[in-house]
Design brief:
The protein is an alpha+beta fold and 247 residues long. The protein folds into two domains: 77 residues, Beta Barrel (OB fold (Dihydrolipoamide Acetyltransferase, E2P)), CATH 2.40.50.140; 162 residues, Up-down Bundle (de novo design (two linked rop proteins)), CATH 1.20.1440. The protein has a five-stranded mixed β-barrel. A hairpin with a 5-residue loop joins strand 4 and strand 5. Helix 2 packs parallel to helix 4, helix 4 runs parallel beside helix 7 and helix 5 crosses helix 7. The protein binds zinc ion. Zinc ion binds next to strand 7.
Length: 247
């Protein structure tokens, strides 16, 4: 019973299931986020263990039975993203992006543009300069990718004028509730933002991801942009990213 489908996918997360199996959280172009079981993957002789690591870009054969989760019956590796995986800093950046996709986009909502952005983000992360001892959470590439995801999710931050009164500014803060920058008169309760942070966010949104990878991270702008993202996730999605917490 059931049917087998073929789909491209990126592995966002891999969780243990029983003795030898794993549940994978995958992002696909046409079906959005899906869960699937990889049986026997933790055995040393597994046919596709190494091909289903987090960040792997694969083509899958997926058997859909009566249960909610499909079972993976075949894997072709398209890109292992080894570059991102082999360096702790780059891995940190890539995992922030993977978790943001996981939390922002629900199951059963296909969005090929999100998939294309994710695939591109991981390609750029493979060649990212390693900025140790900075935190991956404030890396310009991680920030730019999350801003683009918010745009694709319908939460594009409004940065051109005061989101409360429509005034030109100067803009001095960010209000998560209304999702935009605010002027001094409307700044009560907002996050304070330096002018360089607002300019930086506009550029990260407008420019290709590869230019974010080359950008020199202004530390204060990075921290403030991260605070904006965190506030938007909390206010609009009700979640926090584990990969952004701590260190
Ligand atoms: Zn205002």
């Amino acid at each position: 019973m059931g049917r087998t489908v073929k789909t491209e996918a990126v592995v966002l997360r891999s969780l243990r299931l029983g003795e030898a199996d794993r549940v994978l959280h995958l992002y696909t172009p046409d079906r959005g986020r899906i869960g699937a079981v990889a049986k026997g993957i933790r055995r040393t002789k597994s046919r596709f263990g190494a091909r289903l690591e987090p960040l792997s870009h694969v083509e899958l054969l997926l058997h859909q039975g009566t249960g909610e989760l499909g079972t993976i019956t075949g894997v072709d590796l398209l890109d292992s993203h080894r570059g991102a995986r082999e360096d702790a800093y780059r891995l940190g950046v890539a995992l922030v992006g993977a978790e943001a996709v996981l939390r922002l986009f629900g199951e059963g909502e296909g969005n090929p543009r999100v998939f294309a952005a994710l695939a591109r983000f991981l390609e750029v992360a493979d060649d990212l300069p390693s900025r140790v001892p900075e935190r991956p959470a404030v890396d310009p590439l991680a920030l730019a990718f999350q801003l683009k995801l918010l745009w694709l999710a319908g939460y594009l931050p409004h940065l051109e004028s005061c989101v409360e009164c429509g005034g030109e500014g100067p803009l001095v803060g960010f209000a998560a509730r209304t999702g935009g920058a605010v002027c001094r008169a409307c700044a009560a309760g907002s996050l304070a933002l330096a002018p360089a942070t607002l300019r930086g966010m506009e550029q990260l949104l407008r420019r290709p991801l590869v230019e974010a990878a080359d950008a020199s991270g202004d530390v204060r702008a990075g921290r403030e942009t991260l605070a904006v993202l965190t506030a938007l996730y909390e206010f609009h999605g009700g979640f926090r990213l584990r990969t952004l917490a701590g260190s």
